[in-house]
UniProtKB/TrEMBL annotation:
This is Glycosyltransferase, group 1 family protein. InterPro entries: Glyco_trans_1, Glyco_trans_4-like_N. Signal peptide: none annotated. Residues 183-304 form the Glycosyl transferase family domain. SUPFAM superfamilies: UDP-Glycosyltransferase/glycogen phosphorylase (SSF53756). Keywords: Glycosyltransferase, Transferase. GO terms for biological process: lipopolysaccharide biosynthetic process.
Amino acid sequence: MEQAVWAVDGSFFGQRISGIQRYSIELLSALDAVAPAGMVEVVTPPGVRAPVYENIKTVTFGTRQGMAWQQRDYPAYLKQRGAKGLATCNVIPVFGFRGIAVVHDVCYRARPDFYTDLRGRLSAAWHRFQYRRIARVAQHIITVSEFSKSEITRYYGVNPERISVVYNAWQQMQRIAPEDGIFAKHPKLRRGEYYFSMANLLKNKNFPWVLRAARNKPDAVFAIAGGGSLETEAKRLGLADLPNVVYLGYVSDGEAKALMHHCKAFLFPTLYEGFGIPPLEAVACGAPRIYVSDTPCMREIYGDCAGYIDLKTNRGYVDDVTPPKQDAAVLLARYSWRKSAQDLLEILRKES
């Protein structure tokens, strides 16, 4: 039987990098080391540059950009090439797609209460439509945790046999050099004596919990990285001007690595995740302990290596976090991009 060609939607190479794009970038890089030449191609819009691979071919195709390219030019390439699609960022073409889709989570379906403004409702409607479409037409679905797999089955009735789990990993942090100059910028931060979190205004990230924790422990310093209007949100919550909170704004990858390495603990009080990679990255950077929400997903990913925040009873007290039972560094042996790439390659071969 002739081996199928898998054509990856590479439009994410032109997008701002978040966890979804990082997963796609790192997984493809690792896949290049194990996949036979000619099996996988990355297709990008004009002007979007993909890395140079050894075994994965890169192709620029079409004339459009953004969603128009994704919905029109990408499926046109699949048809012209006779290839199967591999879409790694939650979205597939509405028409003309056959292949494998990655659904990182179904937060838009599971927690509609997070998306109440107009922009949020529109985004939720689009993604819920995509989830339904993927559940209906994708040959196979990949997700990033057993928890997320169970959610896809729960909300969209997909047979679990049509879903495989390919985990995130952390090795990208090894390529980043720590930038300790961040401590000169913020002399209030003393190595080993501050709690660190990376925040935004997405409701699932639960930024208010960190502020309440700072209010409730005034003798400790809480460093919060992230752009947007965090200080404005703190004012809205009545938690502005806490003297032990240091707002860092956007930080570089190197600054984040230094902050993770030297923190007392990395805080991740999330309300909903498909995987939740920041604590794993923190451990890879040398964070001595991680405190995460006590949810099924976090329990699956972090096991005994994390301290757990029971959000039903703990309204913002770091001293009441259930302590970890194992050293956080034990986590690093569980996850690797090479292993995830091997898992993906096996799926591609099975579904060819």
